[in-house]
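Kindly go through the entry underneath: sequence plus fold tokens. Please state briefly how this chain folds according to its tokens.
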Amino acid sequence: MRLCSKCGAPTDDGAAYCEKCGAKLGGPEAPASNPPVTPSSESDAPIVVAKRSFVGHYGLLLPIVLVITFWLVIPLIALVCMFLSNRTYRHYVYRDRYVYEGGLLSKKRRTQTMTQVLAVDIEQSFKGKIFDFGDVRVNLIGRGGLRIEGCKHPEEVASALQGLIAKGKDIKQFVAE
């Protein structure tokens, strides 16, 4: 009887393979090089645990891609959403009403009736003058007025509204007694 060189199990002298593990057995003189491992009575807790290094495993490419994604891609997506949302807002001025519509995912619409126009004012900041945007304020009779905020080409909007300015003879004064 001899011992298997792989698992240490006893095998027949004429057997070519181990009956327990299936390893090929050598000649009759093959000694058992690896004795069977028996669990020790000592604690089976490891002495040290080697953890995998993030940079060592993935290299520097993944952390760089994550940083670029966080600092460039996410703000870019936010800017695109803001741009698309801004493109959906419109101000419509008719002779008798003002309509404000907009919204990217949810739509909103606000309508205000317009009485006679008294004055049209433009408010532009320095940045507004450079990029040609501003606020157009329309003073109306009786209703206070309306304000079109952040519109492109405020001079064009104001000149179109100038035609609606009430003439002095058209204004009817209401006196409450």
